[in-house]
Structure to design on (387 residues):
């Protein structure tokens, strides 16, 4: 069914951006249709059986339909082109829509929790109806399919919103299963646990809403890029002739389709400036093609031809490592003036590190001075933005 729908509604002849939009909009429409149907039949089942848990499950599906509407609007707004006020596009609208979805889910969960507690305090006789039982079983099948559908589409277009929607569908399966258990217990053992099952459903809804909020809010706050992506980018840059090292790599995300990368590439100070500039331009173009993101590369000249500089470089590198093995040195330069040897270098400090920049710099300076009385260290501490 999933492959049939995707095959007939998604045309591969359009651009990648257009395809992503189509996938998102299709997922939104599928979610709206399925959840409105489930709400209608479940609400009917809840009314004829006087079950608060079934009604709660029906209202949960109504909130899911609202979530699908928010998802649909999110993808449409995210597809708006860049303008003067938003030069990086509107891709983060997708995250905002996901956060709105999570708020709807949380509010619905709170209301259902209150109704379920009232049902526990004032229980009402539940009437077992076979049609209601069959409706709930069909609901599980539909929600399982929606979970797999959204998960597959989410993987295709790398959408955190659709991944969250898939998990929401899976939690709905658990919640509906709890309702069915309550129906069977009441029917065969004449023990009314409808209110308690309603509480379980509400707690699942709240858990889903909080988890979804975290997953969609994190990209808005700015999360570190995946470690594998950073390592792959570094490996790609270092594969070009003339590149001696890579550091200060930063990834800025403005939505799934808009990422900016900036990094520093170390090159020999003796290199032909025009040739190495051509290499840098080539790397920027290749990164854009391979990783689908715009890259800006800053060149850092490193003098490794001078024997004394090379020896000092390795000594200082070991000195930095003695402070903390996770620290890395880069941008090393030596300036000799009036009998002094000034050493300029940066130290990359990863998270987490509780020491302040001043404390780290002071420790390194003390160790550098032990190497020679005329050594003066000028240190810049860099806090890493990548794992």
């Amino acid at each position: 069914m999933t492959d049939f729908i995707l095959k007939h509604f998604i045309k591969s002849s359009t651009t990648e951006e257009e395809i992503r939009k189509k996938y998102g909009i299709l997922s939104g429409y599928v979610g709206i249709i399925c959840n409105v149907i489930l709400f209608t039949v479940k609400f009917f089942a809840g009314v004829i059986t006087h079950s608060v848990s079934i009604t709660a499950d029906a209202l949960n599906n109504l909130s899911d339909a609202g979530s699908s509407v928010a998802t649909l609007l999110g993808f449409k707004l995210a597809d708006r082109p860049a303008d003067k006020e938003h030069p990086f596009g509107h891709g983060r609208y997708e995250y905002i829509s996901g956060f709105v979805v999570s708020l709807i889910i949380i509010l619905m969960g709170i209301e259902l929790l209150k109704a379920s507690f009232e049902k526990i305090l004032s229980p009402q006789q539940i009437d077992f109806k076979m049609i209601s039982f069959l409706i709930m079983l069909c609901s599980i099948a539909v929600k399982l399919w929606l979970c797999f559908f959204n998960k597959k589409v989410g993987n295709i277009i790398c959408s955190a919103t659709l991944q969250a929607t898939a998990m929401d569908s899976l939690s709905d399966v658990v919640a509906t299963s709890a309702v069915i258990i309550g129906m069977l217990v009441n029917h065969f053992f004449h023990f009314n646990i409808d209110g308690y099952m309603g509480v379980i459903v509400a707690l699942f809804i709240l858990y889903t809403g909080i988890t979804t909020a975290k997953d969609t809010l994190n990209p808005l706050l700015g999360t570190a890029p995946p470690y594998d992506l950073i390592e792959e980018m570094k490996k790609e840059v270092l594969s070009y002739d003339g590149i001696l090292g890579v550091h200060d790599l930063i990834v800025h995300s403005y939505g799934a389709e808009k990422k900016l990368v900036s990094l520093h590439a170390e090159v020999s100070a003796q290199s032909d400036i025009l040739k190495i500039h051509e290499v840098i331009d080539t790397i920027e173009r290749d990164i854009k093609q391979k990783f689908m993101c715009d890259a800006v590369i800053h060149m850092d000249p490193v003098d490794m031809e001078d024997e004394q500089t090379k020896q000092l470089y390795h000594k200082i590198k070991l000195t930095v490592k003695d402070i903390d093995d996770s620290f890395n040195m880069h941008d090393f330069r030596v300036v000799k003036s009036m009998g002094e040897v000034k050493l300029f270098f940066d130290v990359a400090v990863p998270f987490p590190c509780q020491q302040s920049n001043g404390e780290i710099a002071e420790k390194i300076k003390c160790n550098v001075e032990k190497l020679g009385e005329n050594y003066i260290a000028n240190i810049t501490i860099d806090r890493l933005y990548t794992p």
In short: The first strand starts at residue 243 and ends at 253. The beta strands are 243-253, 259-268, 294-302, 328-337, 340-349, 375-383.
